[in-house]
Amino acid sequence: MPKIFDMMKQLAQMKQEAGKIQQELTSHTYEATSADEKIKVTVNGKMDIISLKISPDAFATIKPEKLEREIKDTINEAIQKAQKATSELLKGTLGIELPI
Question: Which of 31, 48, 86, 95 is the most exposed place for a label (fewest CB within 10 A)?
Fold first, then answer.
């Protein structure tokens, strides 16, 4: 029986630690800006897009196909930054290393 109580205690501790990690992931933000600085993306550690800003003159100076590609690339860069930071957080906190 003592093993069951130890396991329940460990489970409660893990749940508490997971909640802390989730809160920390939500509170951190990561930004990426396109090379021409016309697009700026901010994501949080949960990979949610917090903001997407596109310079008004981007629509006049960049062809739609290139603008689409720039938006996608900038979003992906911000997500990669968040993934790397999340991986480092989990490695330091739980000893888990995620492939990026």
Answer: 95
Q: In what order do the strands lie in the sheet with 49-54?
A: 29-33, 39-44, 49-54
Q: Give the mean pLDDT of 3-32.
A: 84
Superfamily of domain 2-94: Nucleoid-associated protein YbaB-like domain (3.30.1310.10)
H/E stretch holding 93: helix 64-94
Q: Answer yes or no: are the C-beta atoms of 72 and 78 closer than 8 Å.
A: no
Distance CA 51, CA 47 (A): 12
How does pLDDT run across 20-77, given as a tens digit for each residue?
877 877 788 999 999 999 999 999 988 999 999 999 999 999 999 999 999 999 999 9
